[in-house]
Design goal:
The chain is α+β, with helices and mostly antiparallel strands. The protein has 2 domains: 46 residues; 45 residues. The strands form 2 sheets. Strands 1-4 form a two-stranded antiparallel sheet. The chain has a two-stranded antiparallel ribbon with strand order 2-3. Strand 2 and strand 3 form a beta hairpin. Helix 1 crosses helix 2 and helix 2 packs antiparallel against helix 3. The protein is globular and about 45 Å long. The chain binds zinc ion. Zinc ion (ZN) binds next to helix 1.
Amino acid sequence: MILKFTEEAGAATCSLCGDSTRWTKGPRLVLADGGDTVCRGCGKRHAAALVALLDLAHVADKVGQQGRHLLTPPMEALLDLARAAENYCTSTPKRQTNADQVS
Ligand SMILES: [Zn+2]
């Protein structure tokens, strides 16, 4: 499974479970072999770190868009960004290993 950057929003059926999936412009999950669409649920089951990275990218994009028009982004947006960053941090196998060593 990989993240692919798409220029346009779209919809397709998940190639793993058959659920209908929609995406917006930006990164989305596809199979590395052939580029078939993968839904969020299947992504979480098979590649949780990629889904966390995808969420982080979407939140960062949203906060970046808001920040363009404001001197400082709203606290809620910053908290969303911090939460997405923490989710990504804890979803990567390497980080989990480091955390295990600390505790
Ligand atoms: Zn699926």
